[in-house]
Amino acid sequence: MRTALFKGACTAIVTPFRRDGLDREALEKLVNWQISSGIKALVACGTTGEPSTMTDGEWAQTLETVVRVADKRVPVIAGTGGNNTARVIALARRARAIGADAQLCVTPYYNKTTQQGLIAHYAAIADEGSLPVILYNVPSRTGLNMEPATLAEISKHDQVIAMKEASGDMIRLADMIRLCEGRIDFYSGSDEVVVPLMSLGGIGVISVVSNLAPVLTSRMADLMLAGETKSAAELQLKLMPLIHALFLEVSPIPVKAGLSMMGFCQDILRLPLISMSERNRAVLKEIMKELEVIP
Predict the structure, then answer these.
(1) Tell me: the pLDDT tens digits for 208-261?
(2) Could you confirm whether 112 is annotated as catalytic?
(3) Which DSSP string do the residues of 187-256 spell out, in sequence order?
(4) pLDDT per position as a tens digit, 128-156
(5) Contact 42, 100 (CB under 8 A)
(6) How far lies 204's CA from each of 23, 67, 136, 207, in Å?
(7) Per-residue pLDDT tens digits for 28-42
(8) Which of 7, 40, 136, 256 is flagged as catalytic?
(9) N or C, which end of the chain has less CB nearby within 10 Å?
């Protein structure tokens, strides 16, 4: 029987920067805090980690730091996704050599491809990347929505282990889960629908909000796994204002602003991303105070 890579909450962790490069000390601190707060896995160099503006060396250094500090306490998932299949495969091989446990691979963007192209893309990655694959469907970012029948076909590959679903469409999700017939696991890729997704059979979330509120996010997912739906739903509703605030501007702009308020890292992003506006920063700060994330 296949064993899930993780169950519960996983954080798609930010990459702290300095003006002259990576801030490894801040990243180490974040990793230790996330794990001690109950987070069950970590994604390094996912969208929240700004890999699009990293050099290949910085990508590898970031992943190496997370793998080293996690030290097998939780699985580490490398963000490898892109719109160049050969490059994704190369990154997957490098991630495996560094020590990652799996890869998170978003659907291709811009040049996108067809549904048959998706099947071919992921088959090549699964065959040649030598690392378990978590698929990532986020049409708001990519302009490409994976169809349930497409996922059902891709899920037949042994190296494909899970789907991070972030379309927000519960009907589509239900069809995905039904058609995959238990071959892969499902994680929410949208913090606002963790409880609904898990009620349909998902086993956790790959989260942005857990960067700021790992204890609450982890507890919500754990309660769902324990069948305590009412209590989990209460936490889902409690987190909603913070979740909304983290998308007042393009992610990860708000989450990095929030972590800087908490003293975990500097509020440094790379162009084309810029720091959060003062108006929205004030809104985020007030919500963080209300949730007692900051004093």
Answers:
(1) 999 999 999 999 999 999 999 999 999 999 999 999 999 999 999 999 999 999
(2) no
(3) EES-GGGHHHHHHTT--EEEESGGGT-HHHHHHHHHHHHTT-HHHHHHHHHHHHHHHHHTTSSSTTHHHH
(4) 978 999 999 999 999 999 999 999 999 99
(5) no
(6) 29, 21, 14, 9
(7) 999 999 999 999 999
(8) 136
(9) N
Find where tokens 């993780």 sit: 6
Q: Give me the residue spans of the domains in the chain.
A: 8-230
pLDDT > 70 in the chain, percent: 100
Query: Helix H segments across the chain?
Result: 24-36, 56-70, 85-98, 115-128, 139-142, 148-154, 170-180, 194-199, 214-225, 229-245, 253-261, 278-290
Q: Identify the band that residue 1 occupies on the pLDDT scale cut at 50, 70 and 90.
A: low
Structure tokens at 103: 């890869």
| CA neighbours closer than 13 Å in the CB half-sphere of residue 175 | 10
Catalytic pick from 7, 40, 164, 256? 164
Report residue 100 CA to chain centroid gap. 15
0.90 exceeded by the pTM? yes
**Element housing 169 (H / E):** none
Let me know if 164 is a catalytic residue. yes
8-230 classified as CATH 3.20.20.70: yes
Q: Which residue has the tokens 């975990």?
A: 264
